[in-house]
């Protein structure tokens, strides 16, 4: 069981850093204490499925990613760029709905160009 806790903790740490979040920010978004997040990342806590779900929601990832080896998750350079832009837009106050509208606009431009 300790190996599982360490593996999940390592993945939480990985995704938190990918999202450029501090432990405090993750704790706040997941409604947990910073101390608890720290202990989870160190593999010192048994994590409930409810907490895994809340962590995944706070990180905006699919909960299954916390069970997969991070070296098994392939992401292209284009996907990394999109994630980066999305994070920047969020910092500027754009909502997920705003981003969806932006994607729809890009599709319309693409379709117009191909006519």
Automatic annotation (TrEMBL):
Residue ranges occupied by any HTH cro/C1-type domain in the UniProt entry = 12-66
Q: Name one GO cellular component term.
A: cytosol
- Write one Pfam family the protein is assigned to: HTH_3
| CDD domains in the record | HTH_XRE (cd00093)
Query: Under what name is this protein listed?
Result: Helix-turn-helix
Q: Which domain of life is it from?
A: Bacteria
Known PANTHER family for this protein? HTH-TYPE TRANSCRIPTIONAL REGULATOR (PTHR46797), METHYLPHOSPHONATE SYNTHASE (PTHR46797:SF1)
Source organism per entry reads Alteribacillus persepolensis
Write the record's keywords in alphabetical order, separated by commas.
DNA-binding
A single Gene Ontology molecular function, please? Answer: DNA-binding transcription factor activity
PROSITE patterns given for it? HTH_CROC1
């Amino acid at each position: 069981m300790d190996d599982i806790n360490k593996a999940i903790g390592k993945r939480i740490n990985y995704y938190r850093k990918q999202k450029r979040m501090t432990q405090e920010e993750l704790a706040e978004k997941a409604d947990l204490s910073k101390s608890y997040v720290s202990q989870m990342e160190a593999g010192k806590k048994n994590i409930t499925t409810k907490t895994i779900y809340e962590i995944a929601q706070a990180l905006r990832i699919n909960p299954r990613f916390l069970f997969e080896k991070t070296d098994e998750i392939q992401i292209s350079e284009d996907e990394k760029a999109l994630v980066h832009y999305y994070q920047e837009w969020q910092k500027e106050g754009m909502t997920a709905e705003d981003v969806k509208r932006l994607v729809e606009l890009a599709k319309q431009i693409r379709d117009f160009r191909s006519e």
